[in-house]
Amino acid sequence: MDVLDLADKLWRGETTVEESHPFSLIGEAQEVADGVAFVPSFANVSAFRTDDGLVLVDTGSAPLAQHVHGTLRRWDTSRLHTAVYSHGHIDHVFGVPVFEEESAAHDWPAPRVVAHEALPARFDRYILTAGYNEVINQRQFQLPDLLWPRAYRYPDQTYRDALALDVGGARFELRHCRGETDDHTYTWIPDRKVLCCGDLFIWASPNAGNPQKVQRYPREWAAGLRDMAELGAELMLPGHGVPVVGADRIRLALTETAELLEHLHDATVAMMNEGARLDDIVHTVRAPQHLLDRPYLRPVYDEPEFVVRNIWRLYGGWWDGDPAHLKPAPAKALATELAALAGGARALADRARALADAGDLRLAGHLAELAWQAAPDDDVVNAARADVYGARAEAEASTMSKGVFSWTAKESG
């Protein structure tokens, strides 16, 4: 796989992100500019030669740490001098120990790790909520055997707003931007016109609404994207997906991603200011279709609908405006009452199947779930729930929706 060739084909529409999903690319280190290597991985790794050794922006996940190390060593054998974490998600921060072992074996100075000052608190939270994160990531990625890590390589040096690192004659400018996370860093290498944007751009609609995870920050994210667009980068290396080559393409990709986030933010806040309920906002606010049609903004991972919910959570709290939801009855009690009114849980399940067959998968999902909550041990109800949510998973494009719906179908299957 030639990542630059793939990048050009994606941009031109000669292939699609559905065919080359930004989270599915794993390959060898490729020199994408003089002294710059790019490792396509579940989370990409960018490497820079300097006179004092290598600088990495992101280091990869635990399962792929040996792969990242091995392929980089086929490109360059210099010691690892510095590693920059773009943020603390576990697919980006588990490659350093392999290099540390190598440094110890060669009696080299240990690598330095640099990150934003909010990152250590993320690691602390991951340890505190390890069981929860294990469950939700098993569900999101359909990996029932996934184990959430309990130990982390914390940074040696942190910064608040900006930090310049001079390593072996090369300058790396780190800048903070709250976006997908509160600890995000993008790295600008001015002499080489290279921008490492982390997960602020991932060849997909921004991951600003993940339904199972903590707060995202769309407005500040958009501002950061516009700041990056003004840098004049000629090569952009993202945390997922393939590089973007050329100043015009980079500027367009960043500004249109910002435009998408700004539209969702402003339209949601406008309805909130009018007193609308969350349900009304979710079913009214839509992303501009011309942006979703861009090859780098397809909703193949997260979805604009989920971003709307995250904006509500940021400004409006957990209550959705429906008074019945403020202090609700237990879900099972409500389901049992509705099943009784409908003539039994199987009547709800039958109606769910009929709605699914008619193409109304959203309403079918409600009824299938109510039937299951009322009669979770009923084989007929479980079969209907499995079929309805299997159909829902099949109809979805995003990793988020597919993960939840597939998990639900298997739960009843």
Descriptive report:
This protein is of the alpha/beta class and 413 residues long. The chain has 3 domains: 3-258, Metallo-beta-lactamase, Chain A (4-Layer Sandwich); 262-316, no CATH class; 328-412, Alpha Horseshoe (Serine Threonine Protein Phosphatase 5, Tetratricopeptide repeat). Helices cover 44% and strands 15% of the residues. The protein has a 7-stranded mixed beta sheet with strand order 1-2-3-4-5-6-7, with helices on one face. Strands 8-9-10-11-12-13 form a 6-stranded mixed beta sheet, with helices on both faces. Strand 5 (80-84), helix 3 (96-106) and strand 6 form a beta-alpha-beta unit. Helix 14 runs antiparallel to helix 15 (399-412). 44% of the residues are buried. The mean pLDDT is 97.
Tell me the helix content.
40-55%
Give the class from helix and strand content and strand pairing: alpha/beta
Distance between the termini: 38 Å
**Which segments are poorly predicted (pLDDT under 50) over 5 or more consecutive residues?**
none
CATH topology of the largest domain: Metallo-beta-lactamase, Chain A
Rg estimate, integer Å: 23 Å
Count of DSSP helices? 15
> At the fourth CATH level, what is the homologous superfamily of the largest domain?
Metallo-beta-lactamase domain
Task: Describe this protein with a few key phrases.
about 425 residues; alpha/beta; Metallo-beta-lactamase, Chain A; Serine Threonine Protein Phosphatase 5, Tetratricopeptide repeat; 3 domains; 7-stranded mixed beta sheet; 6-stranded mixed beta sheet; about 45% helix
